[in-house]
Amino acid sequence: MYFHPSYLLLIPGMILVWWAQQRVQGTYRKYSQVRSGLGMTGAEVAQTILKNMGVYNVTVEPVAGELTDHYDPSAKAVRLSEVVYGSDSIAAAAVAAHECGHVLQDVKGYKPMNVRAALVPAVNLGANFGPLLIMAGLFMGAIGGVFIQIGIALFAAVIIFHLVTLPVEFDASSRALRIIDELGILQGEENRAARKVLNAAAFTYVATALYAVLQLIQYLILANSRR
Fewest Cβ atoms closer than 10 Å to its Cβ: which of 71, 82, 205, 227? Predict the structure, then answer.
């Protein structure tokens, strides 16, 4: 195994990502046990928001898993995890509204969302092959430097993706909180609870982005030490 002191740089990022995941899971579980005043399920919240937004070509569907909620713009579908789809909790309402926030971004042509979607192929390539090329280059001769440079360039796409994701997710949450307040889906203290759920979820994206940046720095240190 190849070990370099630069690997220690990743430890703070790993701790931060773990803490962010624990925070979002804890906050979600807390408010998933609190029923909203109107008693609307996640599916009903999403359908109500879409109707009031004048969006009729987007379906609301259940999907297996926990915290697997997402909006698929290619299929025009808001997919809610089964626990959100059928739950009438504050957490379910917040998550459903957040995904509808992405729908509104799509309808309005929100540019960062389009940029993120365009980056997906490059991100898949960079995440899968970037680190492999970098590590392979460390053990090769003169040509190894070329492999490292290509690997770093590929991984840079991952960084850009994570950075673009931040405004997309924060904007979707902002739209969600505004919509559920305007429509009266959640009221008073319920809105503050929904904000806590969405803020905790958003912080996981911040932590992941920071960890990716630390990875890139570590790769650059490895490349420099090789010289």
Answer: 227
* Distances 206 to 2, 213, 226 between C-alpha atoms, Å: 29, 11, 31
Q: Are strands 77-81 and 59-63 parallel, antiparallel or unpaired?
A: parallel
Is 99 among the catalytic positions?
A: yes
Residue 78 DSSP SS3 = strand
Catalytic residue from among 44, 66, 82, 99: 99
The whole-angstrom distance between residue 207's C-alpha and the CA centroid of its chain comes to: 10
Structure tokens at 164: 């673009």
pLDDT per residue, tens digit, the chain (227 aa), is 456 677 788 899 999 999 999 999 999 999 999 999 999 999 999 999 999 999 999 999 999 988 899 999 999 999 999 999 999 999 999 999 999 999 999 999 999 999 999 999 989 999 889 989 988 887 787 778 888 889 999 999 999 999 999 999 999 999 999 999 999 999 999 999 999 999 999 999 999 999 999 999 988 888 777 65
In angstroms, the CA 119 to CA 6 distance is 28
In 109-188, where does DSSP find H-type helix?
Answer: 111-138, 144-182
C-alpha Rg value of the chain to the nearest Å: 20
